[in-house]
Amino acid sequence: MASEFVYKVASEFSRYPGGRLRSHGEFSGQAFREDVVLSLLHAHDKIIFDLSGSAGYSSGFLDEAFGELGAIFGVSEVRRRIKLIATDDAEAIEIAWERIKDASHEANKG
Amino acid sequence: MQQGTPWWVTATLMAFTAILSNQLAVRRERAKAAADFMGGWRKRFSDAVASICDSASKHYSQADDVKNTHSSSCLINNNLKRIGSIRSEVEFVDSANAKRFRDAYHNLHYVITGSADFEDVNRNIRPPGDPIFESIRNSEEALMKASKAKLKPKDV
Known about the structure:
The structure holds two protein chains of two kinds.
Chain A: E1 4-8, H1 9-12, H2 29-43, E2 46-50, H3 59-73, H4 75-81, E3 82-85, H5 90-109
Parallel strand pairs in A: 1-2, 2-3
Helix pairs in contact in A: 2-3, 3-4, 3-5
Chain B: H1 7-61, H2 63-67, H3 69-87, E1 90-92, H4 95-113, H5 131-146, E2 151-153
Antiparallel strand pairs in B: 1-2
């Protein structure tokens, strides 16, 4: 069984994640998805993103960072390859999965 | 010799009464502690929600907040996370109410932080009639209404 790669967002990306798009400033959700998530998915089959320890995530960041994956891969493939954990922010995980499902649903409709 | 109630019946009744009385007292104390906790929780929760909605409205309407977009948005994200933490101290008795609450919280989170300009350092002040202010108020009301459902402390 392939091992799961663990990526700690607070220590390896930023404790203060930014907004939705690169044009909005540093540490955006778009930058996270394009520079971190997609590269990691290219290199590893399964990844655990640990969202613990940050100062909080905006819906825009979660939507752009993780939600878009639902549109790209489909929710079942995202579920197979990605696990989101957080010891201190259960809501961020729920919101991220909601966005992944919504984006996948939207992509299937379109 | 006259036959009365055997001594052991009296003793057993006395012991039973003492145990029952103790159990009732413990149960009353626990119910009171839970009610006190929930009273405090509701106050902390409603204060936190009101505070974050005020901060969010300022974030979109005040020149200082627009100028300091990054710190203002970080503070809001952090306070939303704190609401999630306060929420985790209790549980809903009815799962339908738990879902209603979760949806209301996620909606408030999205209304406040999901806008494209939430953390845009080049954003503009939103005018007083902008729909976002009404959306924030409506989401706040919906969340407060959802929090009125029957709850209990998580460890009880």
